């Protein structure tokens, strides 16, 4: 898992930085909807980076030579295990908090709720004592919760605009998009760029929703909408919740300023930027496929974790030394598979322990799960033992 995370780190970070820079530098030329749509670049890059390469059977075998000491193997395994434990601990803790918060909020919203009406005959609206501003909550069964004094606090025009705002969230299925974004954030919780990107993504989501509501609004309606937003602003800090909320007061000022200077977007800039991003994504895909079509090199079969085989006690007692060549494939997550004995001298002495150890090795995924690799293990009792190097070489000593 750790090696997969490391593989995704660079393209993911590059995609986030690209979106942030485009929104910052080209803000006045890009519409709010286009800026929000730009965040699709993040999952698209991840998908392209994980597309299967070539599944055709490769008949070539490479001669890779390694000399790995027992100390180096133990150190590699310890570091790998420690990093895996830290990542899993962080992921588990955050996942628990997100799930617990979602369940707690759901119970709170549903307590003493009262049905009001449906928006466009689809989205049910409920009164609730647990909300101080409208909240679109849920994934499979989405509901809009409003304060009991909602219609007393807002005039007819303001209430209409607020309902339109929530309807945009509902039709775009923003809650599902938010849940997916939170899932990515949990997986890459250690990357600070993911936190920055997630925060900006949620803000631009709301701005894009504001733009959709005010697309054909007159000046009076814009003023009414801004007053409604100010009234809806709250001290909401549930930033890792999938439901759509009106954000805290510190962010509302930024939204109001954006509404006043709402850019309609420059069609030429939007088209050119789309072409540039498309070309960038295509280059990522071709680069990935290119790796699958070129001749395999040592870098494509790099071992990450090596476990030294146990020297068979009977062989050690009898002073038997020898070598064994094993064939194997590498799965998509870097595990060894289809471990078989290619040749051994002497036969049947080191097979069991060699295969047992190799099944615990971890490699950097190559993307070609059908390619067979070879590894030679030398079982030596003394430093004087010599054998021919076929592929990878690790000496196994008696303890």
Word description of this protein:
By secondary structure, the chain is of the alpha+beta class. Among the domains are: 85-262, no CATH class; 298-396, 2-Layer Sandwich (TolA/TonB C-terminal domain). The protein is 51% helix and 14% strand. The protein has 13 helices and 10 strands. The chain has a 4-stranded mixed beta sheet with strand order 1-2-4-3, with helices on both faces. It has a 4-stranded mixed beta sheet with strand order 7-6-9-10, with helices on one face. A hairpin with a 5-residue loop joins strand 3 and strand 4. Helix 6 packs across helix 9. The longest helix is centred in the N-terminal third of the chain and has 41 residues, at 70-110. The radius of gyration is 29 Å and the shape is elongated. The two termini are 32 Å apart.
Features:
about 400 residues, alpha+beta, TolA/TonB C-terminal domain, 4-stranded mixed sheet, about 50% helix
Layout of SSEs?
Elements: H1 2-25, H2 32-37, H3 41-49, H4 70-110, E1 114-119, E2 123-128, E3 135-137, E4 143-147, H5 150-153, H6 156-172, H7 174-187, H8 192-213, H9 219-232, H10 249-260, H11 267-293, E5 303-305, H12 313-317, E6 322-330, E7 336-345, H13 351-358, E8 362-363, E9 373-379, E10 393-396
Parallel strand pairs: 2-4, 9-10
Antiparallel strand pairs: 1-2, 3-4, 5-8, 6-7, 6-9
Helix pairs in contact: 1-3, 1-8, 3-11, 6-8, 6-9, 7-8, 8-10, 9-10
Pfam family, one: TonB_C
Family: Belongs to the TonB family.
Keywords: Cell inner membrane, Cell membrane, Membrane, Protein transport, Signal-anchor, Transmembrane, Transmembrane helix, Transport
């Amino acid at each position: 898992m750790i090696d997969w995370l490391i593989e995704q780190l660079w393209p993911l970070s590059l995609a986030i930085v690209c979106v942030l820079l485009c929104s910052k530098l080209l803000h006045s030329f890009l519409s709010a909807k286009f800026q929000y749509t730009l965040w699709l670049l993040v999952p698209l890059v991840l998908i392209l980076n994980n597309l299967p390469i070539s599944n055709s059977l490769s008949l070539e075998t490479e001669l890779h030579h390694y000399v790995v000491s027992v100390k180096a193997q133990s150190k590699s395994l310890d570091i790998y295990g420690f990093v895996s434990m830290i990542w899993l601990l962080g992921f588990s803790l955050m996942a628990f908090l997100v799930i617990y918060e979602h369940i707690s909020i759901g119970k709170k919203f549903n307590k003493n709720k009262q049905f009001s009406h449906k928006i466009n005959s689809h989205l049910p609206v409920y009164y609730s004592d647990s909300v101080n501003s409208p909240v679109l909550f849920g994934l499979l069964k989405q509901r809009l919760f409003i304060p009991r004094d909602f219609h007393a606090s807002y005039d007819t025009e303001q209430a209409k605009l607020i309902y339109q705002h929530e309807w945009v969230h509902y039709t775009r299925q923003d809650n599902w998009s938010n849940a997916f974004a939170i899932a990515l954030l949990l997986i890459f919780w250690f990357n600070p760029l993911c936190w920055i990107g997630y925060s900006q993504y949620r803000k631009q989501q709301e701005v894009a929703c504001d733009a959709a509501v005010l697309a054909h609004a007159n000046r009076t309606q814009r003023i009414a909408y801004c007053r409604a937003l100010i009234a809806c602003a709250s001290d909401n800090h549930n930033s890792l919740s999938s439901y759509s909320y009106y954000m805290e007061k510190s962010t509302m000022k930024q939204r109001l300023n954006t509404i006043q200077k709402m850019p309609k977007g420059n069609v030429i800039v939007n088209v050119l930027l789309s072409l540039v991003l498309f070309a960038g994504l295509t280059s990522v895909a071709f680069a990935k496929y290119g790796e699958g079509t070129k001749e395999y090199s040592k870098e494509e079969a790099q071992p990450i974790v090596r476990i030294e085989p146990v020297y068979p006690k009977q062989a050690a007692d009898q002073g038997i030394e020898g070598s064994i060549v094993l064939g194997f494939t590498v799965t998509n997550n870097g595990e060894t598979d289809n471990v078989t004995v290619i040749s051994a001298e002497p036969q049947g002495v080191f097979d069991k322990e060699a295969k047992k150890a190799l099944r615990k090795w971890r490699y950097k995924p190559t993307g070609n799960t059908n390619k067979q690799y070879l590894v030679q293990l030398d079982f030596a009792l003394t430093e004087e033992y010599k054998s021919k190097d076929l592929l990878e070489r690790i000496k196994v000593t008696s303890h």
